[in-house]
Amino acid sequence: MSAATLQLKQIIHQSKTSSKYTHMKQRITVAKGDGIGPEIMDATLSILLAAGAQIEIDEIEVGEKVYLAGNTAGIAPEAWDIIRRNKVFLKAPITTPQGGGYKSLNVTTRKFLGLYANIRPCISLSPFVHTKHPQMDVVIVRENEEDLYAGIEHQQTDEVVQCLKLISRPGCEKIVRYAFEYAKAYGRKKVTCFTKDNIMKQTDGLFHQVFDEIAVEYPEIENEHWIIDIGAAKLADTPEIFDVLVMPNLYGDVLSDVAAQIAGSVGLAGSANIGQECAMFEAIHGSAPRRAGQNLANPSGLLQGAVMMLNHIGQNAVAENVQNAWLKTIEEGIHTYDIYKEGVSTQKVGTKEFAEAIIRNLGQKPSNLKAVTYGKGQALHLPVYQRKAPQQKELVGVDLFVHWSGTDANELASLVNTINLSQVQLTMITNRGIKVWPDGFQETFCTDHWRCRFKPVAGAAVNKQDVIELLQKAEAASIDIIKTENLYAFNGKPAFSLGQGQ
Question: pLDDT at residue 18 above 50?
Fold first, then answer.
């Protein structure tokens, strides 16, 4: 055993018996995961304990072994019990086997535990870690439970499948308020919202609307909205103009990886997943099985997640100590292979040696990189969502989706018009959203998936019995109805999209 390793073991032992910090010990759940997971988790825990983190550890097994043992969820029921009891979960990367119907444990955990907020700080470590953006300091707050990640998909015709994009007011309110509370707690000056509500006026439109509503409650924090495409371009080109970014699930998933990479490396980024009751902390990179067992992996991503965990449980002084020691190590040029660069780095080290270097730097602050100060903050506890008074809801029409293999919309209209009711009639047909009848263009390419919109004639109304009668007539006419969508107005305002070109 090397002298350094012996010293490390002594430090860890001392941390278990005495500490200058006076916090009650927090029991946490730990999963070492797959691939490089066990190595980077051991390194991370050694740093936390040496820094005086007041934690007690319950280890569970999740991931590949559990999957291959026949559990398609990748986690045993008793492991869920431990996570739910401890409320705090530090997880290393896992491997999800390909095929076999295995579900992503990350997605499952976020949804089961209501971890609605995903927090990913992306900070430049220039000039010690290469980046084209030396002034970058961005935090992405991503909605974590809904959007297209609800995973509700169907094949409806030979040629068309659909994925439902679900955006809820509670989901929007919780994540937007979290973004502003985070900015307030950490001294951030601006919160920016990214959506695509120029196209998705109902779903992304709701997210933007809620953002605007909540922003007025925080007059001390600047707010702005960007359309996601130009916003993403600006983030990649000029990230220093942003501070805290909040966005729906899919955009946040993509852009948080982009932001981490342009800041220096995805391998350096950590992630917090926060809910009303529980929280999970992790690295954002994968399990890298090709690097497993070689003492090569960089534990920084998981360590960054662990620092967020310490802040979450109120051990801010420990978090500050660990983060500053990590920054000191980075600027000393003591680097693992993934960020090592001749002329900048001074020493290429392995996973264990990198952890030992951080431990030696505990109590020190960086000289060139900006030292952190976390103060005495606690976990952000937001008010429980209060459901709004119901709006006046009125049925104003119905869309019948038809599987039809023809190509002439006028021919389809002639067929569908045979099921008209005296008070409810066909008004429009679209194909993949574009209006093709009436007055469609012959150049428009059409699939076998058609939306036929029925609305009441002037002075009439529509009810659900009318919808049933339309379906019965369609069945009698051998028209293949694959789904329906009722058209509603809320408080007199239509709450559905027009056809493109309508």
Answer: no
